[in-house]
Amino acid sequence: MTRHFSVDEANALLPRVRSLVESVLAARQRVLDAQPEVWPVLQKAIGNGGSQKAGELVEELKRIERGIKAMLGGREVFLCWRYDEPHVGFWHELYTGFAGRQPL
Question: Which domain holds residue 63?
Fold first, then answer.
């Protein structure tokens, strides 16, 4: 089930979001740390299984992919907040990523 947030709701959740971002950043670091060991395995094992480390990597990637969605003008968008910003002040289309970031 998709959950949509207003800007006020998103700002109220920032303490929790900051905690989640810290978790995502840690997951990202684990992915980077595992890359030298896992990348050759993944290249060889596409479609043929993998390794325990590759399975762990998939879970870390799932954590990184999670996002918060909102409705803007009747369409679904991502609210966009960087870890160092004091509040949610931007958004972007689902397909544009950070490069499509626009002020609210």
Answer: 7-103
104 and 89 Cβ atoms separated by less than 8 Å: yes
- Nearest 10 degrees: CA dihedral of 88, 83, 27, 95? 50
The pLDDT tens digits of the residues spanning 13-67 come to 888 888 888 887 788 788 778 777 776 776 666 556 556 666 666 666 666 555 4
- DSSP E strand stretches across 26-94: 69-72, 75-80, 90-93
Output the six-digit token pair for 75.
């369409």
In a domain, 44, yes or no: yes
- Domain total of the chain: 1
CA distance 36 to 50: 15
